[in-house]
Amino acid sequence: MTEDNAIWIEKYRPKDFSELKGQKEIVKRVEAFVKQENMPHLLFAGPAGTGKTSLALIIARKLFKDAWHQNFLELNASDERGIDIIRVKVKDFARTRAIGDVPFKIIYLDECDALTKEAQQALRRTMENYTQTCRFILACNYSSKIVEPIQSRCVVFRFKPLDKKEILSIIEHVSKEEKLKVNDKAKEALYEISEGDCRRVENILQSSAAIEKHITEEIIYSLASMAHPKEVDEVLKLALQNKFVESRKKLLDVMLNYGLSGLDIIKQIQKEILNLDIDNRKKMELIEKCGEIEFRMTEGSDEFIQLEALLSQITLAGIN
After folding, report:
1. Which of 46, 126, 131, 277 has its CA 20 to 30 A from that of 270?
2. Is 227 exposed, middle or buried (0-12, 13-18, 19+ CB in 10 A)?
3. Which of 178, 171, 119 has the alpha carbon at shortest distance from 150?
């Protein structure tokens, strides 16, 4: 477990269509394209850590076999987001013919929703002009940020977060390979924290294993920069019991112990409000307050004053 993080992530990256978790329908359709050795431009949209890059690499390996490095160009558009990268690097690669039997190369543009509008327009023309010698696979978190002309040129696949069963199977596989012991509560914590992001699960597991071979939920929460839900729940219950000062003190202790910012803790508070034993209408009012407080924080308001204001609203909800 002393390997570099990027090497470790690559070690557990799926190498075959059958190994990719959680995207059965997408894999089935993409596999059909690969068998025909022909495919349109593809657009992969969805949350981080759901298999977009892994699927693009599998496509390249299956199509080009040993020559996949020569026929596959991977770029991260969030680093190289200007129009020059499209006009020079992408165009130079796209205009040359592929090596081998497959009649096209593949350009994989990751995080292409970070491309400027001008770069997207240049990309649209490149996709149009070099379709005989090159296919594009575009990956993004939000397809709405991709201009309509590009979307209409691609087959769009929407990736979904991995469900609990798939996350647990990944945890089992990694813990078996690395000889780790992960208890049931730690597995539940990993699933809650990951929110269906496979990469985040693997990152937290690697960090945890560097500390201890027997992984507990306390280790998981401390490394994930998240407070234990029980402690957040305690903060809210103290406020509901009209113990505002104790609630504020507990909240500050939790933030200091876990090194959390106001924006980190507000998201956990919002989740725990739904579990409180209060009237549903009051729950909805408090969630609305969470949204208002979060907006104020992002606009630059003092996070401690805003969190105190939220606790005061929770206290009032308990009194009324």
Report:
1. 46
2. buried
3. 119
Ordered domains of the chain (ranges, CATH): 23-158 (3.40.50.300), 164-223 (1.10.8.60), 229-319 (1.20.272.10)
pLDDT per residue as tens digits for the range 259-273: 888 888 998 999 999
Please tell me the distance from the alpha carbon of residue 70 to that of residue 87, in angstroms, as a whole number.
Answer: 20
Tracing tokens 């960090």 back to the chain, one arrives at 207
* Lowest-confidence segment of 97-111, 131-145, 278-292 by average pLDDT: 97-111
Structure confidence by residue, pLDDT tens digits, 21-53 = 888 899 899 999 988 888 899 999 998 888 898
CB 138 within 8 A of CB 154: yes
The model's pTM is 0.80
How far is the C-alpha of 132 from the C-alpha of 134, rounded, in Å?
6
CA 246-249-255 angle, to 5 degrees, is 140
Work out whether strand 214-215 and strand 105-110 pair parallel, antiparallel, or are unpaired.
unpaired
